[in-house]
Amino acid sequence: MLNDQQRKAIHTTDGRVLILAGAGSGKTSVITHRIAHLIKNLNTPPTSILGLTFTNKAAEEMRTRVAGMINPSLAKQVMLCTFHSFCMQILRKEIHKLGYTKDFSLYDERDVRRLLNHLVREELGVDGDLPSLDPTYEAISLAKNKAQTPDEMEGDKMSKELYGRLQTIMRAYNAVDFDNLLYLTLQLFEEHPEVLTKYQTRFRYIMIDEYQDTNPIQYRLAKLLSASHNNLCVVGDDDQAIYGWRGAEIKNILQFESETVIKLEQNYRSTPTILTAANTVIRHNQQRHIKELWSTKEPGDLIEVFNAPNDQDEAAAVVMRMIAYNKNHKIPWSEMAILYRSNLLARPLELALMQACWEKEGQWRRGIPYQTFGGTEFSERAEIKDLAAYLRVISNPQDQEAILRIINVPRRGISDQALDKITQHSRTQKQPLWKVLHEVSELDGLSDRALKGIRHFIEIIEQGREKFAHPAFDEALRWLLETINYRKAIEEEVKSDKAREYKWENVEAFVQTSKEYTDLQEFLGTMALDDNQFSQREEAGRENKVNLMTFHSAKGLEFTLCFLVGLEDQIMPHEKSMAEGGLEEERRLMYVAMTRAKRYLTLSMARQRKRYGKDVNMTPSRFLFEIPKELIKVTSWKG
Predict the structure, then answer these.
(1) Which of 8, 12, 13, 28 is catalytic?
(2) Partner of 636 at 20 to 30 A CA spacing, among 100, 332, 420, 517?
(3) Annotated catalytic, 240?
(4) Is the pLDDT confidence value at 533 over 80?
(5) Is the pLDDT of residue 79 over 70?
(6) Average model confidence (pLDDT) across the chain
């Protein structure tokens, strides 16, 4: 059942429309109904509709919902995807205009960091221990997301030089990273107007979800794409803008020039008590659109607040309350979440959960099942990185980073010294590494064993190019695994039987997923952009386990019972964010965390917390004092 504002949002289709969708206000339903309305009632060709999101999960959910409202074959024709996926599809067709080839490799963050490390050591001649390159990587990434050239970026001379060298060497490798997907697409549109015109003409209606999270380059892409028909609908909530640290600019939604503004303020998730508390906190921010969440539900319980002596006692008190809610209110573990500002706060909570004793069906049990989020993603595991590197070289032999990863995996007798000699020759002669490998017999000082290993590697890659030129990728992958004898390599490298079996299960999952694809570049691109499809990790709430995650990770999720822990100044708001003038973003983060709770919300803090190896006295978060007293119930930490 849609409310009046939702119906207005669905039927306002033309012009520039800003939909301010508060937490839990049903924005996904509005977006999908709007798409269905355009196709079903206004006879809009589905191929002329573009919907951009920030996660593959959101795009997939929208696709599924639209397919349930109209003919599924029509729903498939709507382009619903992330910004990065959209840009990759364009570049696969048009990137030759920028001097790349369509079989370019897609580098992830680790690939780029490793390349930066190499540049500092080899290109700039820095020896010994390297300082952390994190600030340099982040500065370069931010510059790309602002569409800045090396000369325009903020930073020291070395960072600017590294940025320029990084772009040059990635072009030589025919490689693109995530940031470059956006950067190069913008460059393509601005330097080749005929390409822009093609996509402007095609997409008559454009919708962007989570608009508050857009960065400068995404803003410019949206502006260019919508310039022809001028039917741009952006959906978002400035009160949930929490990604300024990675380049998102809240001014994009605050200053959006709209012909129509529609506010979705009715909340379908939380109790009025929780909503009033969250509304009151966020009202302290100056940079925001005025709006108030409300609900027709019963008022609900007061928000519990307690102050524990230290972080161990805080964790024990949280677990004690969880056991009581599980027993007295029959709330399953999967409907409970413990949220914190930083992953550094998780350890005492994990220990308390592991040591907890609780009763079930007359029997005492030890340990409450839980899952944390933010661990190693499937595509980051060594065995998957190895296989992906093989496929990257098969697809794009100019990918030097991928070659160096797997030229000796499994071991082929190619020593580090031999590799150093080969890469040095590649650099001094300014020749691609793949070309040097073909001419390696002309180099002095390489052992017969190394030469044999290199020849074998080249044979595998060249045979692989034939095998992967046709569908049935799972068969080609099994050929590759047998040819390189990868299972034996795992058995030799990994000592634990359990770990060996786990790694091989991951390999099998990778092979099974490949069945769905008929194009190698598409397979590699999807793998890089959509880790969820390849992950065996269960989503929050799917297994009956307590969910532990950061405030940032919790965005978009909901739970019957939420504990917000570590609510002390210097942690929430975070000291680093405060130093950078980010109090309003920290308050928005508090608002996001509070509005994850459906029925019960508990806020906690510790008077003393172990930080950097020392016991430090803490003071309650200033945000706690912004909640009206009549909405909270202060309790003893002991319950």
Answers:
(1) 28
(2) 332
(3) yes
(4) no
(5) yes
(6) 91
Say how far apart CA 293 and CA 275 lie, in whole Å: 6
**Strand pairing of 175-177 and 105-107?**
parallel
Q: Which of 6, 167, 240, 271 is catalytic?
A: 240
Residue 461 vs residue 360, higher pLDDT: 461
Give the residue with greater pLDDT, 338 vs 126: 338
d(CA 47, CA 75): 9
The number of residues in the chain equals: 639
Residue 611 reports pLDDT greater than 50? yes
Q: Spell out where 99-252 has E strands.
A: 105-107, 175-177, 205-208, 232-236
442 classed as catalytic:
no
Catalytic residue among 263, 321, 596, 609: 596
Please compute Rg for the chain using Cα positions: 27
464 within 8 A of 477, measured Cβ to Cβ: no
Query: Which residues sit opposite 606 in a β-bridge?
Result: 308
pLDDT above 90: residue 639: no
Q: Is 269 in the active site?
A: no
Question: What was the pLDDT predicted at 479?
Answer: 94
pLDDT in tens, 450-501: 999 999 999 999 999 999 988 778 889 999 999 999 998 898 888 888 788 8
Cβ-proximal residues to 56 (8 Å cutoff; 6+ apart), any chain: 81, 82, 85, 529, 530, 532, 533
Distance of CA 608 to the CA centre of its chain: 33
Catalytic, 64? Answer: no
* Residue 125 pLDDT: 67
Q: Which of 210, 213, 249, 530 is catalytic?
A: 210
Taking the CB of residue 388, how many other CB atoms lie within 10 A of it?
A: 23
Q: How many CA atoms lie within 13 A of 371 on its CB side?
A: 18
Q: 6, 27, 239, 269: which is the annotated catalytic residue?
A: 27
The amino acid at residue 502 is Y
Is 27 considered catalytic here? Answer: yes
Q: Report the C-alpha gap between 253 and 241 in whole angstroms.
A: 9
Query: Is 209 in the active site?
Result: yes
pLDDT, one tens digit per residue, over 153-172 is: 988 888 899 999 999 999 99
Residue of 177, 179, 209, 558 marked catalytic: 209
> Is the CB of residue 195 less than 8 Å from the CB of residue 189?
yes
Is residue 371 within 8 A of residue 544, CB to CB? The reply is no
Phi-psi region of 289 (alpha: psi -120 to 50; beta: other; left: phi over 0): beta
- Average pLDDT for 232-249: 94
Q: Reduced to 3 states, what is the DSSP secondary structure of residue 372?
A: strand
Strands of the sheet containing 49-53, edge to edge, are 79-82, 49-53, 205-208, 232-236, 17-21, 260-264
DSSP class of 294: B
Instruction: Estimate the crossing angle of helix 382-395 against helix 448-467, to 10 degrees.
Output: 70
List the one residue out of 336, 245, 290 whose CA is nearest residue 600.
336
CA angle 212, 215, 221 (to 5 degrees): 105
pLDDT for 558 equals 96
User: pTM to 2 decimals?
Assistant: 0.86
Q: In the numeric block, which tokens belong to residue 462? A: 């060249």
